[in-house]
């Protein structure tokens, strides 16, 4: 019997509970949800930001208090805080295990969170090496600020080589099998890993489906995103987005519109249908759709009639929802004086700082660039520029990685550190950022990292040339919404 089928059968055995009947408990949960909304980005993985530490601590405290009163929903919130490191050290494995009983009690959000943890490749008794907590932060003062990177596994142990960790796990299992007279051959090892991976994928779908069966519409959207991003299954993704849209769920309309706009495998591009889906999501207050339709109205793109005033109204609504990308875009409008707003450095900086505080990596990078140059009425502050670049690197922002790497290389705003410089510039180059690729090649050839590596330098320059040729030959035709935003 399939994992999905088993999960559906188990649903019939759940106890009927009133999770938050007490008014005080409901009030606590409402406050926790408000704090979690401020802590997490609209899309993607939350990264710890210093000015939000107090909110994280308060979210964990209130969720724990509600859980002590017997609220099963609150227990799911505690697990969420444990997963992301709000108010305590991040430990996905502990969060995963703590959700087991909550799922048994029929809390749909617990199923969805358990699926999300599995999607991150963390299992109850098996950790795939791609999962690790990577923290980058600047420490010190003045010219002694240094970028510190720590990578730890779920137990807080330093990971030096994830692949070796995976091999070590297999060796331990092989020793146990050998002692029992049944050693693990390479073919069997490969087969068992594939079986375990297929089981993980099946459990992800089963958990999301269980949450959807319990009326948690957000799980339908997450399942659609999983099929699209991890399985490249546009047909199933489209089906789940349609189901969420049929229930008037804003995010369902948005993701459906994105697929209709871009086209994916079996889904052909249909701008008319896409605009209708985006319009429905925007009418329901969906921030991403408001920004998307607002930008289209301001510039008259994707078949939308040009209407700057109406477009600004939509962008402003998204800003009022504290959507970081919308705040960043409005800042750019004031910087460039895009109709119908007038150019204003004061409003540009104010909005840019707000977007950075809300977690926009683009805003962090741009604000860092302003501090670096001493532009728009701000005095040059290299240390502050470096701090902002480093914060943006937590989101794998390639321009910020390159900028922070150069500052480490030349000792600008921080202590000169060739090791950190090579890692940061290498990370940006690995994302095919052309300036970083060319700089990395030249730095290796010139021996600027302390050792000359002509062959590696030439390889990076050749790769940069090939990437540039490929970029020139690629014409998207219309503005494409990145699948990572889905």
UniProtKB/TrEMBL annotation:
This is Uncharacterized protein. Coiled coil: none annotated. Keywords: Repeat. PANTHER family: PROTEIN SKT5-RELATED (PTHR46430). It holds the Pfam family Sel1. SMART domains: SEL1.
């Amino acid at each position: 019997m399939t994992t999905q089928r088993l999960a559906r059968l188990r649903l019939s055995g759940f106890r009927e509970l009133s999770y938050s009947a007490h008014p005080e408990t409901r009030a606590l949960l409402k406050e926790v949800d408000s704090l979690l909304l401020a802590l997490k980005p609209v899309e993607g993985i939350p990264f710890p930001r210093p000015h939000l530490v107090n909110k994280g601590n308060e979210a964990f405290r209130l969720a724990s208090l509600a859980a002590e009163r017997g609220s099963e929903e609150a227990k799911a919130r505690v697990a969420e805080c444990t997963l992301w490191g709000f108010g305590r050290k991040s430990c996905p494995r502990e969060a995963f295990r703590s959700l087991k009983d909550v799922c048994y009690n029929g809390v749909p959000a617990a199923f969805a969170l358990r699926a999300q943890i599995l999607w991150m490749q963390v299992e109850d008794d098996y950790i795939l090496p791609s999962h690790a907590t990577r923290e980058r932060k600047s420490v010190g003062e003045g010219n002694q600020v240094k970028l510190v990177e720590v990578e730890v596994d779920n137990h807080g142990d330093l990971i030096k080589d994830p692949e070796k960790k995976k091999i070590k796990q297999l060796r331990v299992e092989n020793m146990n099998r050998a002692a029992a007279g049944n050693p693990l051959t390479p073919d069997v090892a490969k087969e068992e890993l594939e079986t375990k991976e297929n089981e993980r994928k099946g459990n992800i779908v089963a958990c999301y489906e269980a949450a959807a069966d319990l009326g948690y519409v957000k799980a339908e959207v997450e399942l659609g995103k999983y099929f699209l991003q991890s399985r490249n299954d546009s047909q199933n993704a489209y089906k789940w987005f349609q189901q969420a849209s049929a229930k008037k769920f804003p995010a369902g309309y948005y993701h459906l519109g994105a697929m209709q706009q871009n086209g994916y495998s079996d889904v052909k591009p249909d701008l008319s249908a896409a605009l209708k889906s985006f319009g429905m999501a925007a009418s329901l207050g969906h921030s991403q759709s408001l920004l998307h339709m607002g930008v289209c109205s301001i510039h008259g793109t994707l078949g939308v009639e040009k209407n700057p005033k109406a477009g600004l109204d939509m962008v402003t609504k998204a800003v009022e929802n504290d959507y970081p990308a919308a705040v960043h875009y409005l800042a750019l409008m004031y910087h460039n004086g895009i109709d119908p707003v007038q150019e204003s450095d004061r409003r540009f900086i104010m909005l840019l700082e707000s977007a950075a505080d809300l977690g926009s990596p683009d805003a962090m990078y741009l604000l860092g660039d302003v501090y670096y140059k001493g532009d728009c009425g701000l005095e040059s502050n290299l240390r502050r520029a470096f701090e902002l670049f480093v914060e943006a690197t937590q989101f794998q922002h390639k321009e910020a990685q390159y900028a922070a790497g150069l500052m480490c290389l030349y000792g600008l705003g921080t202590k000169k550190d060739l090791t950190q410089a090579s890692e940061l510039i290498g990370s940006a180059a690995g994302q095919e950022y052309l300036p970083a690729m060319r700089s990395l090649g030249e730095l290796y050839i010139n021996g600027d990292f302390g050792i000359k590596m002509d062959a590696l330098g030439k390889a990076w320059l050749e790769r940069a040339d090939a990437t540039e040729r490929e970029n020139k030959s690629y014409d998207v035709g219309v503005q494409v919404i990145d699948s990572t935003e889905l």
